[in-house]
Amino acid sequence: MTASSTPPAREGLLAGLAADASPGELLAPWTSLRVGGPAELLVRPRSADALVRLLARAKAGGIPVHVLGGGANTLVGDLGIPGLTLKLPGDLFPEEVQPAGAGDGGLVTLGAGAAIARLINVMRTRGWVGAEFLAGIPGTIGGAVAMNAGTKQGECKRVLDAVELATPDGIGWVARSALTIRYRHTELPAGAVLTRARFRLSGGDIEASRAAMDADLGYRKRTQPLSQPNCGSVFQNPPGDHAGRLIESVGLKGTVLGGAQISPLHANWIVNLGQARAADVVGLIERARERVREATGIVLVPEVKRVGVFG
Ligand SMILES: Cc1cc2nc3c(=O)[nH]c(=O)nc-3n(C[C@H](O)[C@H](O)[C@H](O)COP(=O)(O)OP(=O)(O)OC[C@H]3O[C@@H](n4cnc5c(N)ncnc54)[C@H](O)[C@@H]3O)c2cc1C
Questions:
Q1: What whole-number distance in Å separates Cα of residue 245 and Cα of residue 268?
Q2: Are residues 29 and 102 in the same domain?
Q3: Whose CA, among 29, 127, 212, 276, lies 20 to 30 Å from 11?
């Protein structure tokens, strides 16, 4: 990065740090929905030490920090994200596998920037079981932990053993038992960045494990608009009901706004028809929330994270 391309307020932020920076980088390509404006400064730290020092400098300078994982659950505003957007490289940390003993499974430690699929690959390769419900969920390990990603079959917290967190004060491991984790949310200390996660997998019925993943992937292909850019489920399912069923019941399935559409295949999914703006997606989210609230009294809670400035 050159000094001339650095926003004046951010000068010195990266001096002497092992990090790659890209001012003004468009974030749409880094999200699965493919919408959103630029990051004021997108930074990929090249070491844990650089990350901690960056967090400390950002805190001292009052610069906001957002962590972007795989962007599979993120809606970036059309005017982009002010401050620092962090993206942890997938290979920032080596993958570690510690077998517990013959047939007993073991521990798998992955960097937060690694793909969720890495955990599934290690599980399959080792002949272990336990994380089937994460197969087919796009994004990173950090995003899976932060969102407590999962399905009706299970949630990330079931296999999570510990996380490593970076803050402006340093970096360290926190046991799963010390974390508050609920439906699609893990409580993290303010400003903490997940850097690694350790998972506990077990020995078990490999054939049943593979069959469960194949069945789940088949179900996804039949019921989800996977060929169009999307962010998965837009709303959390309210207790005892399904957001998709509620949105369909108020007649909004297939509704188009600008370049975005409530999917005709699954009403809890919004797809980008090609040129969607974040404002189109927000418009559909608000319309669905309003119509469902009017008709049923149920207030749908968005699962997708809105980040940045929407104009
Ligand atoms: C086709 C499709 C299918 C999906 N199916 C499912 C499903 O079945 N179940 C499900 O739960 N989700 C599903 N999702 C949503 C998404 O895949 C998950 O929420 C996933 O865990 C998001 O990971 P990510 O890395 O992309 O997170 P991002 O979207 O990048 O971030 C999500 C949140 O996590 C935070 N975060 C990310 N990394 C870190 C970090 N290192 N430290 C601190 N915070 C961090 C971000 O700041 C943000 O608040 C689906 C999405 C798509 C596109």
A1: 8
A2: no
A3: 29
